[in-house]
Amino acid sequence: MIIDCHGHYTTAPPQLAAFREAQLARLDEPGRAAPAMAPVTDDALRESVVNHQLKVLRERGGDLMLFSPKASGMEHHVTDPETARAWAEASNDLVHRVSLLFPEHFAAVCQLPQTPNGPLDGVIAELRRCVGELGFVGCNLNPDPSGGHWTSPPLTDPYWFPLYEVMEDLGVPAMVHVSSSCNPAFHTLGAHYLNADTSVFMQLVQADLFGRFPGLRFVVPHGGGAVPYHWGRYRGLAMRMGRPDPAEHLRNNVFFDTCVYHQPGVDLLTQVVDAGNILFASEMLGAVRGVDPATGIAWDDTKGYVDGAGLTAEQLAMVYETNARRVYPRLDALLTAQGR
Amino acid sequence: MIIDCHGHYTTAPPQLAAFREAQLARLDEPGRAAPAMAPVTDDALRESVVNHQLKVLRERGGDLMLFSPKASGMEHHVTDPETARAWAEASNDLVHRVSLLFPEHFAAVCQLPQTPNGPLDGVIAELRRCVGELGFVGCNLNPDPSGGHWTSPPLTDPYWFPLYEVMEDLGVPAMVHVSSSCNPAFHTLGAHYLNADTSVFMQLVQADLFGRFPGLRFVVPHGGGAVPYHWGRYRGLAMRMGRPDPAEHLRNNVFFDTCVYHQPGVDLLTQVVDAGNILFASEMLGAVRGVDPATGIAWDDTKGYVDGAGLTAEQLAMVYETNARRVYPRLDALLTAQGR
Fold this sequence. Notes:
Two copies of one chain form a homodimer. By secondary structure, chain A is α/β, with parallel strands linked by helices.
């Protein structure tokens, strides 16, 4: 089977955006009561995905998508913890309901109610609620809740450890994914996302986080940012710094997705990164929509690139399925319970 | 001939570092007189390069290097303009003297006395001094003088236009190069440099800077950061934003160097970027020193990768020589005067 480990609910019914607007408006009027989201019917949820993510997934030969709230909408730069909690809860609840409506095609991954350098207790509580009560299989972790100002400590800092303890305990990985950029120097989709992937990978090269948390697993999206293209740079830097070779050091803990939108990029990724550390993904409907006029192929139809990258059948099985089941053991349990 | 467009004076005599220390110490004691740099003899300058950059350049078959002060040492985050002026002047003067001692092998590129969001008049004055009086052929422009806090406007903002007018007027390009990171989230060599390359490229995709400054040219170092690896992403984003195809839009104004330290990376670069937009470079002795134990080849021996990338003889001539002479017309004039 083919598992797409990186999809976002970018087509949620308009009640979600209206709720967010009401939330943000209220922050300017502290006396106002907290808004509630208008009800969304199951039919509206079905309609929001059947002709979008689900249709495209099936047309391209995919079976199941790891589905999380829209990344650019997480907006962790909003500093009020209670607003962040209610926003993550509403966003996650919709994703949860989609996964219940289409249990064969969507497994849920949660947004965390992070705030810039805020306390992590609310983050941990929402993770426990989603995984423990609702059957989520993973989470998205934002290394820069400030939205492009990078005011948080590196992911190797003890600030994050309480969260990691719970992730290990629950057996869920995190996709390292920033949200919208509030910094005009960084375009959200064309710079901030890729910079975050690159920066976090280097943070992990510098320190020995996984010696302390051997069961902690991160998926670095967008093909690992700049990392595979500069694989020699990272190997050379690690050696110069007296650090172990990244391929060995991070083998059991760090994985790249295949959200790289042209054949030469996916060729490079599969050439330099071990197939055991690559998870198939498209991030559709996401950053880059439409068709390359030069090839007639949709930019984010990454399955075509992966199929064309010259991997063996065994490697393809790892990239398409077995790596994801290993990195997300709760997904494996769900699928096993379905007889898949 | 083979021109390496990206080398830094990372081996300057110790008087330069001592001067910097004295400069920084003085900032804590405002009453103290400005320090002067201890004299450096021509012999000391010769010795500082003959067994380092010059030796490696010649051993690897290179003829000439565009030589600028150490990038991580520019330290534009220090906010005092007079300190920045004296520091750039001292650094540039040494590079200038090296270029006079070895005119066949080094052409000078200057550091600019930038400060975070500071006025550009001192920057322009130093550019005019270096190019007009000392024969420099280009400059390094830092898009983030804050050193990892990214407080400056994008390079497409009018803030920068007075500098661009002078660059056009003088006929010199800029290599877009940040300095040390002061942000623990960004490792200087493993994240900040690459993020800057990626971010600036996207800034240039978003706006029409070269419609206003058709003669302005930027070299994006380190193989363009994450850009060539994500070439499909940039083409797709540009199309979605109603912007022209980056390859067309930036053809006459934006160039990538070849500082990518493994064969698959250089293969990708030369596959997706037109040979007319690639300039040979190694950045030695720079970020990544030493030999890959898997191949026995020095990481930054990029000539081997470029030779192995399957380019035609005509394309190789462009990458090794003619593109650099076109992008740096003052270099071309220098070489022509030398009969080369």
